[in-house]
Write a structure and sequence with these properties.
3 helices, alpha/beta, single chain, two-stranded antiparallel ribbon, globular
């Protein structure tokens, strides 16, 4: 008997926060980090950050990140792409992995994001990595 994929709902207040985040006017880098509340089966806000360095502090927990990044194009234009980063480190419990995997698409749809990146090793999560990923979206 295999466990069925659990799709967690997105907490109401988080839906609202993501909506506001999408239309923010600030020009700094900022991130919303989300996690799953296993008991409530809800995707909830974990923390918010305004610098890139926070990415280094990610633990081996599975994590959803919505990141607003100030991207300087080669022609001098500046854009602020919203990225969805799904960190899926090796070695986390299968039950947890399934909850996160099952909820990822729902969260991406809720946040209406198109730039979705998955990363296995959080040490690879650098600004260079993100710029390279965004480079494909010219």
């Amino acid at each position: 008997q295999s466990e069925s994929l659990v799709v967690c709902d997105v907490a109401e207040d988080l839906v609202e926060k993501l909506r506001k985040f999408r239309f923010r006017k600030e020009t700094n880098n900022a991130a919303i980090i989300m996690k799953i509340d296993k008991d409530k089966q809800l995707v909830v806000l974990d923390e918010e950050h305004e610098v890139f360095d926070f990415l280094v502090s990610l633990t081996s927990e599975k994590t959803f990140i919505v990141y607003s990044y100030k991207y300087q194009h080669e022609d001098g234009r500046v854009s602020y792409p919203l990225c969805f980063i799904f960190s899926s480190p090796v070695g986390c419990k299968p039950e947890q992995q399934m909850m996160y995997a099952g909820s990822k698409n729902k969260l991406v749809q809720t946040a209406e994001l198109t730039k979705v990146f998955e990363i296995r090793n959080t040490e690879d999560l650098t600004e260079e990595w993100l710029r390279e990923k965004l480079g494909f979206f010219h």
